[in-house]
Predict the 3D structure of the following.
Amino acid sequence: MKKKLLPLTLTALAFLSDQLSKAFIVKNWPRENTFIADVFGNEFLWIYHVRNTAIAFSLGHNLPDWIKPVLFILLPTALLVFLAVYFFRSNEFSPLQRWALAGILGGGLGNLVDRIFRPAGVVDFISVKLYGLLGFERWPTFNLADSFVVVFGILLLISVFMPEQGRAGKKKQ
């Protein structure tokens, strides 16, 4: 049971760091669309307070208001509950996969709490310059929760393609 509970410290840290960073932004710069700082002085990293009433890249912002709670609150809640249940019931995860899922859960919870308790939208504040890469001058503004979901999602995906040896639940030869 310890191997299942210990990764949840990452869930808690991801959730807390996300919520504390968003609270700091909102407290100090309450108006959205507020430029806060050019971190390195070369336009690469900006802190810029915006709100997102949709999902990643503002997908769905034009949807009718009645459908947004279903798509942006109920479905993510169901997915997070499914992941949490699977996290505890399955013994097939490697330690790396368990930690990756814990990071995804923390990030997912961070944005879900924003969608429920911040009617103006999810707080985003990190803006990175891409210099035209992928057709973007700047990557769409994001937050720590988004980072946790993406980074640990990629880590989980990579771990799926790792060799089978060493995976939990597999018999060693």
Summary: Helices lie at 2-5, 8-28, 68-89, 95-117, 144-160.
